[in-house]
């Protein structure tokens, strides 16, 4: 626990100032985090980042992460992100033939889903911040931290019924609802003490929704790790695992938060 707390403090001391600054530093941070997360995810399936399909995945991810104000690059080339993704699929499928099915159709699907899964979350992290939504970035961070902490401590204190033992044996139903409760408390504090543009009822409903799907995001990554027999996605953050372990919930929350059109 001590190592976990120290890592969290150091990570927050680096991450939060960049979020506050925004602009190019934040975009570069998002690119770095997304690239590491892609590496971790491909590694689960024993796919190397520094390989033909790995580099294709990385390049497409970087294109996918281009925020709205930088999409002129694609406009000049007369391509859309969808067209780039379709071209990547053709290249992946061609590579299955070139390798005589050592890189399989399943690997193609995994690579494409990895790009979308990681890219979607970090793209909307950039878009929310660049739209002037600093308060909403902090809101998302605090409700997920509250959800995780509430689920852990309430689950340990009173948890009896397993939530989804086949995927995450330590999570409990009581912890699940405890996490939602703690997130709602945090949302009340945001309405009272920040300039967030939402009523108690509106933000409360949205918080319940985001807290649930944040926990779903956590379970999705747990399912991936269980399927590929991996304990942690990486070792970059001592006591926490990898980047994917820390951002699994937020990869679900940031797109949904953006889709609510609060910003």
Automatic annotation (TrEMBL):
GO terms for biological process: CDP-diacylglycerol biosynthetic process. It is found in: Cell membrane. The keyword Transmembrane helix applies. InterPro entries: PC_trans. Pathway: Phospholipid metabolism; CDP-diacylglycerol biosynthesis; CDP-diacylglycerol from sn-glycerol 3-phosphate: step 3/3; Lipid metabolism. It comes from the Bacteria. It catalyses: a 1,2-diacyl-sn-glycero-3-phosphate + CTP + H(+) = a CDP-1,2-diacyl-sn-glycerol + diphosphate. It comes from Robertmurraya siralis. Its EC number is 2.7.7.41. Its main location: membrane. It is a multi-pass membrane protein. This is Phosphatidate cytidylyltransferase. Keywords: Cell membrane, Lipid biosynthesis, Lipid metabolism, Membrane, Nucleotidyltransferase, Phospholipid biosynthesis, Phospholipid metabolism, Transferase, Transmembrane, Transmembrane helix. Belongs to the CDS family. GO terms for cellular component: plasma membrane.
